[in-house]
Amino acid sequence: MNLRDFLGGHPAAVALRLTIVSILIGLLLSFFGVTPWNFFQVLDRFARSIYDLGFGAVQALLEYLILGAMVVLPIWLIVRFLRARPGPPAD
Questions:
Q1: What's the pLDDT at 16?
Q2: 69 half-sphere exposure, CB direction, 13 A CA radius
Q3: Number of domains within the chain
Q4: Which residues contact 84 (CB under 8 A, 6 or more apart)?
Q5: Is pLDDT at 1 greater than 80 in this prediction?
Q6: Measured by CB atoms within 10 angstroms of the end CB, which terminus of the chain is less buried, N or C?
Q7: Is residue 6 part of a domain?
Q8: Could you give the maximum distance between any two Cα atoms of the chain, in Å?
Q9: What DSSP element (H or E) covers 14?
């Protein structure tokens, strides 16, 4: 395999395309406040926010579970006690 096949075209053309794409991506990232100096900090903050969002959803789910159980369990217990009452004696 020669260099042109490896790069996917003439080296100068590939370098020009990579330069243009790098500038466009750099503009996009700077629009979101990412700089070369804080790039890894932004990635870390993003990963932590995704992590926190996941556990925030679990916490909300547990709160809904507890709230629902405060209503459902007493009703279930009352129904179970009413069904467990001895009926009239069988002859």
A1: 93
A2: 6
A3: 2
A4: none
A5: no
A6: C
A7: yes
A8: 102
A9: helix 11-31
Supply angle C-alpha 30, 22, 45, rounded to 5: 40
CA atoms within 13 A on the CB side of 16: 5
Q: 8 is written with which tokens?
A: 């996917």
Query: Helix, strand or coil for residue 48?
Result: helix
Q: Which residue has the tokens 């990412």?
A: 34
Q: Which residue has the tokens 């990579």?
A: 18
Helix (H) or strand (E) holding 46: helix 39-84
> The tokens 């406040």 sit on which residue?
33
Q: Which two tokens stand for residue 74?
A: 């007493």
The DSSP-derived string for 55-88 is HHHHHHHHHHHHHHHHHHHHHHHHHHHHHHS--S
Structural domain containing residue 17: 1-33
For residue range 38-48, what is the model confidence (pLDDT) as tens digits? 888 888 888 88
Rounded Cα distance, 64 and 51, in Å: 20
